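question for whoever is on the cluster today: can someone run the full assembly for these? two chains, 927 residues total. i dont have access anymore since they changed the login thing
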Amino acid sequence: MPENALVEGLDLDQYKYDFRTVDKPVFRTEPGLSEDVVRAISAHKEEPEWMLEFRLKAYRLYLKKPMPTWGADLSDLESVLDQIYYYVRPQDRMKNNWEDVPDNIKNTFEKLGIPEAEQKVLAGVGAQYESEMVYHSLKKEWDEQGVIFDSIEDGLKNHPDVFQKYFASVIPPADNKFAALNSAVWSGGSFVYVPPGVNLDTPLQAYFRVNQERMGQFERTLIIIDEGAQAHYIEGCTAPIYSTESFHSGVIEIVVAKNARFRYTTIQNWSNNMYNLVTQRALVNERATMEWLDGNLGSKATMKYPSCYLVGEGAHGSILSIAYAGDGQHQDTGGKVVHAAPHTTSSIVSKSISKGTGRATYRGLCKVYEGSTSARSNVECDALLINDTARSDTYPYIEIEEQSANVGHEATVSKVGDEQLFYLMSRGMSKDEAMALIVRGFIEPIAKQLPLEYAVELNRLIEMEMEGSVG
Amino acid sequence: MAEAVADRRGQAEDTLATGNLNGLAVTRLGEGEPDWLAQRRLHAWKVYETTPMPTERMEEWRYTDLAQRLPLDQLHLPSAVPLIDDPATWPEPLKHTMRDDPDSSGHIVLLGGNVVHADIQPSLASRGVVLTSLRKAVEEHPELLKEHLATQAVPPEEGKLQALNAALWTDGVFLYVPRGVRLESPVRVTRWVSGAGTAYFTRTLIVAEPASQVSYVDEVLSEDLDSHTFTSTSVEVIARDSARVQYVAVQRLGRGVFYQSAQSTLADRDSTLDTLNVSLGGTTTRVDLNARLLGPGANSNMLGLYFGDGDQHFDHNTSQDHLAPATRSDLLYKGALDGGSHSVFRGIIRVAKRAQQTDAYQTNRNLVLSQGARADSLPKLEIEADDVRCSHGATVGQLDEEALFYLMSRGISRDQAERLVVLGFLGEVLQRLPLGGVVEKVTRAIESKLRTGAHA
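^ ran it for u. tokens below:
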């Protein structure tokens, strides 16, 4: 079989989360966005007045800000945004007991393996369905230590002081057009607080599911890791495939206090009709560590650049990013590290794989402000191109205002080498086994950072993508 | 082969003497010129007028505030007093730097916006090599100019400043090397800029026919000028199949000058087209270099060196366009920033779908020598072919303490050790394109900057 035919055979129509659940939401706003929709969302959530005003102000900002043109192709997005549902409430109120979740929703998450995972490895689980968290639970031992793991709405209701202090402090609505949109219509997401010194040694997980067609999901997450505490938060996302486009735009704000340590892992596996435009940022204080582990496998177009603002002396930020762009997909991802204090260190490692007509773009920023003495940063980007219709771009921005800073950036782009393939095949492997092995080796530095279950899942996904070349 | 310039423009002169950068000047410049050229100027002016002025909101100008650095409405075109080819009247620094040049195949001297002197070895002239002013070439080689001048390499559509240059250029250099002719020594061009508040527009066109070989060194100098002065140049270099061309630009202007150079190199099959940009002087430097690899086997080495102090601002914007299979490019730009200087390096490698078996490399390294200095680096890749080897790297750092310590332990003072390390760092670029005269001159210029700089 000629190699091209073999490569063509690596098709992508194997998305295993493509199943729809038939249900009837309790409430949804009319399609499209207006001030009335913003007011309706706020009213449904019985919010305090300041939050309604915050939303309305953000809505006006959103209207004023132009559509970004520098990243993924968003030329069709305006019409998508006119047609989607901005708020869909799937059930009356959030449940803390799995048995109480309506059957159809429960079945959905069971198919995705969520309750199973909870029992095994997780400290707590949140599940969002359409616009609302339908389920949230935290193991008792952590609850007793003062850990808060709630829906964002309950965070606002039950912890108003902490909430108001930090909400929109890391990512103000004016940050970018989609942060403004999220600020206007946010719904769902998690509120996490880990008290000083508490070491949450198993992860918290939030799972995001979009089920309905033409859905807009706008989750908002606020995470505060207090002094000397440690935690790991994992989010996963899936949706069924529709012929129309859906839209997901989250805002994730994180504060890592002095000496604390936090890791945020994303396994984004939206269906290929999803626009995924997310703003994620962490404020990292004195000697604290923030780690982003960002896996982007799904969606039609993703624009997402997890950021670390290193504002305390000795803070460390790390971003591990892996992107897979298959047919018709554009992963415009990367990371930002901003050094604003002395002795801060950071590292970005990005690996991307482009296949078919996929396009993977690394876009990153390393900024060192004057006065951030002895700041150090290292950025490495590697791109793998599986065939000649795929595309890879690298757009790093390096801005250095500090004399004592040391910053390096390196990137390579290559294809799977014929020699590598030949070597493995001469050892008895089929061509696509060899291909999968090489790709697995390529992403290994990132996969090995994942909790075992996710690493296995990631490897399985890669194998699935490389399948079809058999024969 | 002396030539007097500026006496062919007739009545345009008095207007130009007091004129501004406007449509009238474009029309006046076109008077007495062949119709095709006058039309090209008018077209370029139209492009200029319809192209928005670059602002920091545009990606390509993100770090250079053009409106603030270049008050175009306050500048005027040079007065066109007839200039006579008389070395006795040339400024001393110009004569001095020419004396430092070793061997050469020919010379061009420009004062302000006009060529005042051109010579070429008779043996080369007899083999068809042309080295002359662009004005003269318009009359003597109209077909070559019609084909290449502001058409492919740097057309007005490239940008606002490129359009302005194509409309308002007063003179420049034309170099033509026929098939198979190899020039053993470099062609040397020396420019002197003097009038404060003046905007000089010149162009360079180099056509190297198949299997020919030529090196070209262009050096520009001035004293410190107290008000804004603008020197704009568009450089078009064409290397036909298997030709070998080296283009070197050395910028040693005084403070107060805005140096803008839009360069484009077109490399055909199996040709090698190397460039070196040395930026040492001026207040603002903006170099746009686009290397196009058009034929299989084409190869381009792209070198750059900048060293800033005081309030100097350097913006180098490069692109490596691989448009044919089995092409190669390798870029190395290195800079040192002292005082409150600021450098921007923005480079992109673009590999087209059909450009398989491409090797493309890009490296930018910066030394930040003082607390007020700043270095921005944006090395980019856009790859649409899969069978490629591409990499890029960028670093920003400070002097290597271990190297300093080593030298100091040998009894060298810290100041001296620092100078040596900076020289060694920047010298790597010169070693890759070691043209006689250039290495010595640039090394001396760096040394003198290191001595007088705030750093030492």
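summary bc i know u wont read the tokens: Chain A has two domains: 25-415, 416-471. Residues 416-471 of chain A form one domain.
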